[in-house]
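Subject: Interface between my chains keeps coming out wrong

I've been trying for a while to get a sensible model of this assembly. When I model each chain on its own everything looks fine, but I need the whole thing in one frame so I can look at the contacts. Pasting all components below, labels as-is. Any help appreciated, I'm running out of ideas.
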Amino acid sequence: MLDNLFRALLVASLLVGASVSAEEVEREKLQATIDAALDVIYSDCCTSLSDEAKQAKVREAVEASYDLDVIIRRAIGRNWKLMSESEQAEILDLVKQLVLKAYVKGLNGKDRPVVTLGEVIKVSEKRMEIKSTVVLDKTTFYVLYRLARMESGWQVYDIVAENVSVVSNYREQIDDHFRKGSSAELITRLKELLEKDNTNEDIQL
Amino acid sequence: MKTYNSKFALAALLGLVPASYLSAQDSYLSEEDLYNEEIIAEADIYDPIETVNRYTFEFNDFVYMNVLQPIVDGYTAITPDPVEEGASNFFNNLKYPVRLVGNLLQGRLKGAWIETGRFAINSTVGIAGIMTPADAVDGFAPIKSEDVGQAMGSWGIGEGPYLVLPLLGPSNLRDLGGLIGDRAVNPLKEPFSVINDWNWEWRLALTSSEFIATSPSLMERYKQFKGSAIDPYSSMKNGFTQYRRGAVAE
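Reply #2:
Try treating it as a single job with all components included. I did that and got this:
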């Protein structure tokens, strides 16, 4: 009786240990990915690269650990079914390019941000959240990474910066687009955003 | 075998079996579940005057890009970075009463204490708030700004319809009320102005200076946001609402 109890306790303690270390592994993997993406912008090897080359390298660094499609598919939500197969592939790629362009342009000319990962919150067996702080231009931002356990392993499915979920934000934009527009128009809009330095253009409703 | 299975089931019930031992379907989230999940924040932003809001948003964008941006470009070109930062700090420090009232109205005494300490240190050692030495003082690091709109939210007042205010940008009915409250305790605005001789020249000079000093960083963020938005109006509406809801909930 006692023997069985001790065995059970031993197994339980081993599992708790394994679980903690799994979360630790995910945190370290995320930290390494963030560092690798920042190295592309800030390390000596890459500072002379064009923005496009930096975007490609950042993509490579991130996709070595995570599937970027997961975040984008979640942002697209049910609208995915409104697209043809070729449109799905094109939109995935264009949104990916847009996000990478915003990342590289957003950091251009700024000091390297200091990203510190903190507590890992186990939401369920299939979800965890990793808290972090980002110090950029002397300002501290709170960023939360949401991870889901998928068939391909743990994947980042949302990033929440200062309470603003990136996925929710894009989902709202895409939902609004599909209320009156088509997939073809979305592709045109994404291409416009990528081709032009649209930040200096007036908004057209 | 039967005994083994019953032991396994018992262990599973007790949570002693790793997820990998359970069926594959139970051990990970399916794409269908994750991608089609409803996202609560998007569902309920009340925007009954969207058409008007969109036109105001377009008007604001035109003013920001064609009037404010050239002024900001001129200001940043002739003003060294430390001066820009100092001017921005100066106006931020003067808004201490707004942050203090925001904290007090929510019963956040610790926040009120930190804001008061920061104001005292930055106004004296930091030469009228131009520098922020309080950042380095233990216990007085910057905290999130509180305002009257947030306090109203914490009292349970609903946000009301989403609004885009001319020149000021995104808001909602509750935050518009909060803005009026903030203005009432802002020392640069009436009725509690620190300036005795409050004529229109002073008013214009101070308002313009504050506007220009705080605009460069805002314009930079605005342009970044616009550059990655499929629909800037929807993006701003969603981002503002999520941000304010989070601030109220904290």
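Reply #3:
Confirming on my end. The beta strands of chain A are 114-124, 127-136, 139-150, 153-161, 164-165.
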